[in-house]
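We modelled the chain as a single entity of 463 amino acids. Its sequence is:
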Amino acid sequence: MGLLMMATLVLAITLMISLLIKLMHQRRDHGSSCYILHYECFKPSDDRKIDTEFSGNIVMRNKNLGIDEYRFLLRAIVSSGIGEETYAPRNVILGKEESPTLLDGISELEEFFYDTLDKLFHRTGVSPPEIDVLVVNISMLSSEPSLASRIINRYKMREDIKVFNLSGMGCSASLISIDIVKNIFKSHKKAFAVVVTSESIGPNWYSGNDKSMILANCLFRSGGCSILLTNNPTLRTRSMFRLKCLVRTHLGASDEACECAVQKEDELGRPGFHLSKNLPRAATKAFFENLRELAPKILPLKELVRYFIVSGSGSGSGSGKDRGGNNRTGPTVRFKTGVDHFCLHTGGKAVIEGVGKSLGLTEYDLEPARMTLHRFGNTSASSLWYVLGCMEAKRRLKKGDKVLMISFGAGFKCNSCVWEVMRDLEDGNVWRDCIDRYPPKTLVNPFMEKFGWVMDQNPKNPI
């Protein structure tokens, strides 16, 4: 018994020493700095808004739906947390969702590209020929030439620019793009990089009646963000954020995780995006695997020691009952000891609530994600930046604050990173014309008031 206790003590000391060395190394490593100079979120024109009545019209014109599918969609929309001012692609607005063309997809993205990039270059004074790295991530549209090539042609960027055009990365793609930039910065000094992140909604609107696929139509909306980054230390005082760390987790080796969110065709050959019942389980596992690696990188030593002691005593497994007798899920580690703000992916109301519960977050912490879901919907990989914009417009971000970003995506993936705020931020950005209305007194969706009669419709008498 004495030898066992001694071995356990030696192991504990070894782990703590390794942790201390790792933390000291991270804090001294300034050679691979990555700063955000500016970012621009896209706000489509008002003629692309889909309010309650228009949402209902879109649902009603799908003649492939029966009363059961109508009721399912009604419940999904009412409980989605999405408001009346989100944006849809033009081909859906015009009633062309059942026969989209490649041009519809390209036009949708070019409208976003040129709006945000024009503003980005104008606001920063950095010209397109100065850009050394361009990363474009659009998961569900791959064109020839690439979307990145279209941007290079439009802005006449240099011949030696390093270009990456990512597809299939899902809602967590923007942090993958940031990771690419961070690694290139290690070997290229005083460089500029642009990350362009969005999703192709128009050509991927589902017009069938498979419940696992029509759900995506209720959640995904048009949006996007362009981000200018640099590792030039002389621009440190001009920057908005500095990247502290970034962690990527991929569960693709698991069949269940890999197949829980899939672009596919239904039984009649109609393309769409399938969300399986196994998705919550895959997301939960990816989330906790990611946090396990992230925690030592961002938490103060005092909290890590506390967590190490609690875990060693057998009470930190993340399961069981809390003091209120409720089921406890998630880590007992207190992330709020090392993070000031939480920028959560707006994958849906359940996603926001689940992550908030796992991290022990308050309504104040969750408010930016909830408000973003309500105002802009789930804009896929760009969602995080609308949430960040909400925090900035609310003047929450002060110099020295730490912001944790958490995103999920098909594969299945969970990616996270922590940004340090470099100066007090208060730009109204894409929220400028509406931030004073948020949070509203109520987030009740009026869809039920207008279309609740569907719930009472006789199944034998389809709509």
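As a brief sanity check on the tokenised model: The first strand starts at residue 35 and ends at 41. Residues 314-331, 459-463 have pLDDT under 50 and may be disordered.
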